[in-house]
Amino acid sequence: MNCSQTLRMEVTETQAGCGSEMSPVPSISPDNTPKPNTWTDEETGDENEEEGFRDEETLFPASADEFAEFSSTSSWEEGETGLPEDCGRSKKRSCAERVRMFKLRRNLDQLDSFHKQKEHDVLKAREELKACRLRITELEKQRDAVEGEIEEQLEPENIAALLRLRALHNRICIELQGEEDLESQIALVLRENELELCQVDVELGHFSVLRQDVQRELQAFEEQQEREGARRLEQEQAAARGAQLRNQLEKKKQMNSLKLREARYQKVVEEAQENHKKAVVFLKKTMNRVRKKEAEEELKSRKELEKRMQAVLSLKTSIAVTKENLCTLQARDKAKITAEKEEERLLRESVRAEGGDVTKYTYQQKRLREFERKKQVLEEHQKSRKVEIISKILQEEALMEKRKKDQPQLFPASRKSLNKEAFSRKSHEKLLQYLDTTFRESENESYTPEWRTPSPMSEDGDPLSEDELLFPAKPSASLDYTEKMKREDDEEEKEKEAEESLALPEFTGLWDHKHKQYKIPQDEPLSKPIHSSKMEQEILARTLEKHRSTIVRKQVAAGREFKGCPFYSKPELIHFKDFDIGKIYKKKVMLTNISYAINFCKLLGVSEHLKDFITIHFKPPGQLSAGMACDMLVTFKPMVNKDLDGEVQFLSQTGPFSVPLKCTIKKCDLVVDSRLIDFGTHVVGETISRAITLTNRGALGAHFVLVTSSDSGAVQLISRPSSVQPEVSQVMSCAGVVSKQQGSTVQLESGEEGQQTGKNQEPSHGTHCADTESKISGTLSLSDQTLVGPVEPAAEVTTTGENTGVLLGSRQQDALETTEIRPGELREGEIGPFGCVKLQVIFTPTIPGEVQMDFDIKFSDASSPPIPITVRGVAIDVPVWVAQPNIDLKICMYNRLYQDSIVVHSRANTALRLTFEVCQELRNHMEMLPKTGYIQAQSTFNVQLKFLPRHSLPMDAEGYFDKETGVLEVPLTIQVADQARPVLFIVHAVVTTSDLEFDRTELDFGHCSIYESVKTSVRLTNHSLLPQEFGFVGIPKSVDVQPNDGFGTVLPRETLQIDFIFSAKKAREYNFELTCKSGINRDFKLSCKAVGVHPPLELSHSLVKFGATAVNDTSVAALYVVNSHTSRNEFSHPVPRISKGEIAPVGPTSFEFVIPENSDITITPAVGTVKPGKRCLVQVYFRPDLHNEAVREEAVRLLCQAEELRELERTEKEAASTKSAQLEAMSEKETASDLKKGKKQANQGSAKRSAKEKSNKECLSPKTSIPFQPPSLGDIHHDSDTYAAGRASLIRSFKDCFKTYTIPCFITSGEAAEHKEPGHLQYSPYNTLYLELHCPVVRPPLVVVSDNGRTAVNFSEVATGHKVVRRVTVQNISHDSLELRSSVLDPNGPFVLLNALRALDPGATHTLLLSFTPAKGKKYYETLEIRATTMTLRLNLSGVGLEPSVSCSVEGGILRFGYVIENESATQVFKLHNTSSLVVNYSVKLDSWSLTPQKEAQGLPPFLYTGTQPQTLVGTQNYSGLSVFSVSPLEGAIPQGKTQDITVTFRPDHQSLYYSDRLKVELMNKQTVHEIRLKGAARSHTMFLSGGDPLDVPVESLAFLPTNEDPDSAERPLHPVLLTLKSVSGHDTVTPAVRELEVGCIRCTRPVAKKNVEFSWDNLPALQQKGFSVDPARGTVDPGQRKTIIVMWVPPSGQDLSQPLCVSAPLTMKGDVTEVYNITLLALIVRASGLAQEV
Fold first, then answer.
1. Cβ distance 1118 to 1178 under 8 Å?
2. Residue 505 and residue 245: Cα distance in Å, rounded?
3. Which of 889, 1053, 1078 is nearest to 965 (CA)?
């Protein structure tokens, strides 16, 4: 029955069921005729149910023929018309109707699946048809290409190519025909599939109405099921509510009875806890004091020890460094003295060469140096005096202030005292300026740079005149300064000796550095100052006068003599204004002759100090008539930033004249429009402002700052800090001077620092021009700290930027902002060239009375003096004020109410109306009651302040509230009627939150086993600034809160860790909340959830306590894993499950213990399976061991300790040798004093002195050794002796400890037979058990002391049969005697304990003798246990038994010698390599030497046997009886890892192709390790041919074969060669057959007529006609070479597959003789299947 028929039958059944009566409905027969219904509903249901279990293949019809019987005119319409119109049923559907509905749904799905299958078939057929057509197209293209190639090959008549192409053409045509047939078949199948698809589409259309009906029926059925489920759910819920109500009533009764008992018990527990707490507090205090005292004593002892060690090391290092520094300083001083002497010598020679007096010049230089030294001493004295004067002035002021406070009646206060104070401040400032100016002048006198060429100096220090320069005095007229020079030299030597003192410290600190003034280097003068006599000066004057008289003449015209300047300069003054360094300026000057007659002009030059900057370009014009002019170009290149004045000098006929020249730098010219500001009279609280204008009339900008006159000393003005030395920037901004008498610090504030800075910071050529040591700086050296105190941080001044300005200290800034008269926003800034700035001054009176303040405008330009500004005003007081202007509400919490009272006072004579206002931002948080009131005359008024901070306070009062600190400062106002200024007061409060925050709001305990407890921690943070009490209330029984049962106090900003311990009682889900109440009754919720788990397995012991276990020993504990789950009945007993999930199946259950890494625990078995009602034994092993890092650290410590001991021994040896040398020297000295004087005595004395000097030198120059560098931890390997020594040391000093491990045990259902290793078990992490282990570790009483404490005895590699003995020493390091026993070793094993054990006393040792005798070549391992009372010492014995092994270099086991001329030899060498670690003895043997081949030769040859016969490996031998193959050497020994060369020689004595032999390599134990076959062939001539099929047997015949020696025979003998070629024929193709022949030429040593070999083929056309091709057809082979001939056969068309093809062709080879080979080519075609069977 197909799918369509089944569907129609189901429709018929449905129609029949819809009627009111069960009337038979005609079915559809295969011939589309109705057939009577003869089956019932029950039979249909059973039949269809059976059909539903059929295979899926029956759901799809085999073909579309089954649907052919259905058409649009089928009886389906007839059956459909038979359906009753009214099919609605109100009754419940029967079971049969539901079955029919589901069957209809199934059949419709089958029809849809069939439709999809047909669509897939159609698409598949189309793709196949498309691919077939593509293949046809490609084959047609290939056919056309082959036809074209055939036409191309017809012309050259290439038969072989034509045959190949024709065969290819036929194959392509056959494939094309096959593809065309396949295309027609695929097209037919496609049409059939498309027809079937159309039929299925028609059938789907027929059943569309039925599909909709089925869907409606299914929907109605689902709705009915939902209603039924909802009804049942309501019934179950009602029953559950009733049960829950009954349970609640029972629980309530139980709770009432339990509360009474718990109350009594709780009272007793609380009393006990209180007593316990009190005792614990006192005990903790006592223990803390004891521990603290012990820790302090230990720390103190350690520090003292470290200090001593550091002191010794530092002393040792200091001595060595001091010696080196002394040597260095001595060498430097010597070099310096030598350089000075050399410089002085050169200077003397230069003076002497110029004709000067050397003695006089030297004396003058010494006087100058003395003068400089005295000048420096004077400056230091002035500096100290200045500090003393200032200190005394400040002390007097402090004394006056103290007297004013103690005796105010002697100093009446007056409002006019402000002027006096201002006057006193001015006078005080003038005094400081005078002191500073005086001291600065003395500093500036020390060095004044002049940019000019230095001139020679006279004796008294003045420059020499022009006459003195031109005519110096003769040396004979100079004074004698010899005695003075000697005295000066003596004084200098004394001073140097006094300065050189070794008592100074090794290194000078910053406190000893004195400022060294930088001096500009000056060139040496050309001539030395020489004093000339009066006569010489007169002679010089007369000579100059005479010279001038010849040049300069008077000019007289018309009786008038010209007087004045002969030339007029335009401009009159050459002025370079506002120049910049580095730039070049040029000016053109016109010179006009204004004399009476012709005149000339000659340039003499410029002033001496301008020669470095001014260049004159002037071309002499010659004679100029009156009124004529000439020009001159003046170039100015500034290099210093200073004003320059000079002149350009000319010489004319009437006399010299000059043009003035002036160079001025950029300067500031700063003025203000008014220096007095008078604000007049104003009421307190008003604000008035005035402005002054600061104008710069210069070309240089400056930085300005507006400061008060009293605080001007705190201002630092710096112009160019980047171009000066660091000492210039170290200027005091505010220094404290310490009094000598009182030791107190007095603050100094003056304006002198700013003035000094401005004057002393003019750089010139990159150097500073003044000595900054004289300033009272905040960074004075430490040696001056006895007078100058520390600098206040508030007065620090820093500089930023290139043209930095002025920054104010914090104290001065506050002073400017809080005074009644203050400057505006613009207080400092830059004023540009020719610019102006407006400065604003604000007057805000706060205190009644007259106010006056002086300001100074200071500038960064040093040449611009400060501009004083005077401001004054008068303030009038207000009548109402608040007694407490600052109200502090302390710390307040949000949403809490705080109140305070404010008292308002009135001094007025009338009542005043008051209005209390709160700023708009705080009206929701703060309130004053009443808001309006009247204060009576001369009385007070109380106002109530209410403050309720809300959480919106930070956003509402953003300007008054600091979010970070929580500080609130609120200004409140009281408006007074008819008063402009309100009364202000401030409310201070610190607002904090009352929140207690948990670091997480949800606690998930996860899955908790009923056998365990889960602990989790929560951090409780108090964000408030006040301490808060908290407590957890309403805690469930399954939860425990610690510490203190969940009650306590948390301090401000403190975070406490609270532990929650959950214990599940049964397997279910837990959801509950924990409530934490604070002291102000705020609740903080903490949601908790957990899942109770009942694991299917349980442990017999969840806690294992091991006994005291020694290091490297093992303790074992046993426990059971029990599977008690035998029934899934949850009503009789608790069943294993996760929460309310599925009950664990009853059956085998697997477990796995997961051990943490780097632990000392081992569990066996770690993975196992337990059957229901059974238990599994589990053993836990604990083997404590030492950590690798600790062992490495101990090893490094031991190395350092050993190095310290060696160093100490070395030091003691050196000290002893030094002491012995000193004693020897003293004894020799005493002996020398007793001897007589003489030559011998002198010689001995000199020898002793030399020995003593040598020893002293050795003592003074100790050997410097390289410091010891301990190795890093990574450099210490596990197998090194250092590691073993560290391990042994740690074991001996091991301290007892206690370890705890928690091992999880994971559980899963089923067996774990596949994977017994850990990590492969598929478990659920929720079913987990935990095993807790307590492991105490103690020091072992028995240790190994030999081999650095190693317990592993390695015998290394031992040859089989040999015996090696090792010694192991053990020691008892405990305080008790030990009885030793040992385990039994394997009696058949290689290890043996040779001596017996005995009892060991404390500290005693015992040596064990162990032997190792291997019998086989393998590794051996065994453990020897040395048992004591409290531990077991395990010795791991290991060794390797080695057997000799040799490898051979011959691959494949065959050594081929090829072809050799008879009676000649060929040699080959192969290598034997000893791969073992022993020396191997070997021997080489040949089979031809044994008797076995001789016996085999007596029998029949192998080719005569019919059956299988073992093949002999010994072939043809020499006729002479000598061996064909010889070997050298035949035997020997190969060292470990070495190689031995074996030489094999092949020497045949007659021609044969079957020389062979077998070579065997045997070792010392008669074991054959290698067999090598030796093969070779011999020829009588130099040529040979190989590669054909064998035609003879490999055994020589014993009969004599005669040769054709007839000389008349013209034919040469032919050597037959057979070559078989097999071509493989496939389905459509034929594979060509290919064979190879090799033609070779043997290299020989005897002379032959022809060295090479030539070969050629004959009768090749006949071969080509039969399809054979030979490549190459002819060629030449050189001696020792081979050439391959390839023979290929392509079967021609029409070749019979059953008939072989045989063709012969001669191959001629010409060498020393000519040989002809008859090559027979036998070709045949075989099938691919037949060939495979052959293979």
1. yes
2. 97
3. 1053
Sign of CA dihedral 486, 487, 489, 494: positive
Pairing type for strands 1419-1427 and 1381-1382 reads antiparallel
For residues 783 and 379, the model is more confident at: 379
Q: Are 809 and 796 in contact (CB under 8 A)?
A: yes
Give helix 159-206 / helix 95-154 axis angle, nearest 10°: 160
* Cα–Cα nearest to 1039, from 991, 1092, 996, 998: 1092
Residue 1609 backbone dihedrals phi, psi, to 5 degrees: -70, 120
Q: What are the residue ranges of helices labelled H in 1085-1236?
A: 1188-1234
pLDDT for 1045-1104, tens place per residue? 899 999 998 999 999 999 988 888 999 999 999 988 899 999 999 999 999 899 998 899
Q: ω before 1027 within 30° of 0 (cis)?
A: no
Between CA 496 and CA 508 the distance in angstroms is 19
How many other β-carbons are positioned within 10 Å of the β-carbon of residue 1334? 13
| Interatomic CA distance for residues 1087 and 1075, integer angstroms | 9
Q: What would the DSSP string read from start to end of 916-958?
A: EE--GGGTTTEEEESSEEEEPTT-EEEEEEEE---TTHHHHTT
Across 1574-1594, average pLDDT: 82
Helix (H, G, I), strand (E, B) or coil at 1263: coil
CA distances from 176 to 125, 132, 172, 258, 532 (A): 20, 10, 6, 102, 135
- Residue identified by tokens 């002796």 is 1281
Q: What is the pLDDT of residues 21-31, one digit of tens each?
A: 333 333 333 33
Sheet strands side by side (includes 574-579)? 574-579, 655-665, 644-652, 601-606
Which tokens go with 32?
Answer: 């589309």
- Report CA-CA distances (Å) from 136 to 148, 166, 169, 170, 179: 18, 19, 14, 15, 6
Average pLDDT over residues 426-430: 52
Cα dihedral 501/502/506/512 (nearest 10)? -20
Calculate the alpha carbon distances from 919 to 454, 887, 990, 1118, 1154 in Å. Answer: 78, 16, 18, 80, 69
Whether this prediction's pTM lies above 0.85 is answered by no
Nearest one of 1103, 1133, 1135 to 1119, comparing CA atoms? 1103
Query: What's the number of CA atoms in the CB half-sphere (13 Å) around residue 1526?
Result: 11
- Residue 36: what residue type? P
CA–CA separation, 1681 vs 1684, rounded Å?
10
Which range scores top for mean pLDDT: 871-875, 1263-1267, 1276-1280?
Answer: 871-875
Contact of 1106 with 1057, CB cutoff 8 Å: no
What is the C-alpha to C-alpha distance for residues 732 and 751, in angstroms, rounded to an integer? 11
Question: β-strand 1454-1461 against 1568-1579: which pairing, if any?
Answer: parallel
Residue 770 has pLDDT above 60, yes or no: no
| Residue 845 near residue 723, CB atoms below 8 Å | no
What pLDDT score does 1649 carry? 62
Cβ burial of 1062 (10 Å; 0-12, 13-18, 19+) is: buried
Phi/psi for 409 (5° steps) reads -70, -25
Query: Which residues 6+ apart lie within 8 Å of 1354 measured at CB?
Result: 1438, 1439
Q: What is the pLDDT of residue 661?
A: 92
Is the Cβ–Cβ distance between 610 and 648 less than 8 Å? no
Q: Give φ, ψ of 1585 to 5 degrees.
A: -130, 130
Q: How far is CA 1142 from CA 1093, 1131, 1593, in A?
A: 11, 15, 84
Strands lying side by side in the sheet with 1674-1677: 1630-1631, 1614-1625, 1714-1727, 1701-1710, 1653-1657, 1674-1677
Q: How far is the C-alpha of 727 from the C-alpha of 729, rounded, in Å?
A: 5
If phi > 0 it is left, if psi is from -120 to 50 it is alpha, else beta; for residue 1045 that is: left
Residue type, 90: S
